[in-house]
Amino acid sequence: MTIAPQTTTAPFGARLESALATRGRFCAGIDPHAGLLAAWGLEDTVAGLERFALTATEALAPVCSVIKPQSAFYERFGSRGVAVLERVLATAREAGALVALDVKRGDIGSTSQAYADAYLDPASPLCADAVTVSPYLGFGSLSPFVETARAHGGGLFVLALTSNPEGPEVQHARTADGSATPGERVADRVLSHLAALNAAEVEAGSLGSFGAVVGATLADGVVTHADLDFGGPVLAPGFGAQGGTVADIDRIFGPVAPHVLASSSREVLGKGPDAGMLAAAARDANDALAGLG
């Protein structure tokens, strides 16, 4: 199968802002783990993976602003699984959805550039509209991703305040004396860097292209609404089956909720393999989120 490369150079932030306005704030994860394949009556094979992933994408991409495949669930099948991921990316784009590829990459120098080329350069069959990345080798290590995203109209979602219990060990740690803002939490520093990256797009009246990953199940007081007003979008995993609710989105994000993508996979994918039920679940999630902000 020949996959035409993505050719758009419009900034990701502007494209996402338009998608949110027309298609809603729900982000559907396409995560074909073994348990879901079994629940759909499929074998844990490449054939099962392909049936699951393409059925879900064909049902969800026409009704969602963003589709978020988790790359690991495809990579575990080797090159044939990655080929299925390429088809998911192409199918989602053909249906008009943006794709945020969940890869959480983070490295330095030429390796970081190679990852950026793989996921953000239109010449690559794995090119997505945005990718998740980790800043924990130092925010500056993401420079190849930032520059490649800017060159091709892509975006980033940078890990900031995730809701997994192990996250605070690093994300809530305080920066060392002698830094620009001594005693600042690492997560707050990440958000500050994002604000700087988004400044030009915000000044031009657009949503910035550089977003943060902030969990939809954070406790009260972990982050303020002001801290989250960094000019870019937020990817909020944990919505739905993991416990995050519409009320949590409102509580955590407040006035920035209109720029929040509430992400869920199991909650929606559990409605399959019926395509109509998958699409209906996504529409219901969009409807529930529509009243925020």
From TrEMBL:
<comment type="pathway">
    <text>Pyrimidine metabolism; UMP biosynthesis via de novo pathway; UMP from orotate: step 2/2.</text>
</comment>
<dbReference type="GO" id="GO:0044205">
    <property type="term" value="P:'de novo' UMP biosynthetic process"/>
</dbReference>
<dbReference type="GO" id="GO:0006207">
    <property type="term" value="P:'de novo' pyrimidine nucleobase biosynthetic process"/>
</dbReference>
<dbReference type="GO" id="GO:0004590">
    <property type="term" value="F:orotidine-5'-phosphate decarboxylase activity"/>
</dbReference>
<dbReference type="Pfam" id="PF00215">
    <property type="entry name" value="OMPdecase"/>
</dbReference>
<dbReference type="InterPro" id="IPR011995">
    <property type="entry name" value="OMPdecase_type-2"/>
</dbReference>
<dbReference type="InterPro" id="IPR001754">
    <property type="entry name" value="OMPdeCOase_dom"/>
</dbReference>
<protein>
    <recommendedName>
        <fullName>Orotidine 5'-phosphate decarboxylase</fullName>
        <ecNumber>4.1.1.23</ecNumber>
    </recommendedName>
</protein>
<feature type="active site" description="Proton donor">
    <location>
        <position position="104"/>
    </location>
</feature>
<comment type="similarity">
    <text>Belongs to the OMP decarboxylase family. Type 2 subfamily.</text>
</comment>
<feature type="domain" description="Orotidine 5'-phosphate decarboxylase">
    <location>
        <begin position="25"/>
        <end position="281"/>
    </location>
</feature>
<keyword id="KW-0665">Pyrimidine biosynthesis</keyword>
<dbReference type="InterPro" id="IPR011060">
    <property type="entry name" value="RibuloseP-bd_barrel"/>
</dbReference>
<keyword id="KW-0210">Decarboxylase</keyword>
<dbReference type="InterPro" id="IPR013785">
    <property type="entry name" value="Aldolase_TIM"/>
</dbReference>
<keyword id="KW-0456">Lyase</keyword>
